[in-house]
Amino acid sequence: MQEQESRTLSFTTLAAGPDFRHELEIKRSRFITVLRRAESEEGARALVADLRREFHDARHHCSAFVLGADRDIQRSSDDGEPSGTAGVPMLEALLRRETAPGVTDLSDVSAVVVRYFGGVLLGAGGLVRAYSESVSTALALSPLVQRRRLRICAVRMPHAAAGRLENDLRSAGYAMAETGYEANSAVLRLALPDSPAALADAAGHLAAITAGAAALEPEGTEWVDL
Question: What stretches of the chain adopt beta strand conformation (E)?
Answer without folding.
Answer: 10-14, 20-26, 29-37, 60-67, 73-77, 109-116, 144-157, 175-176, 180-181, 186-193, 217-225
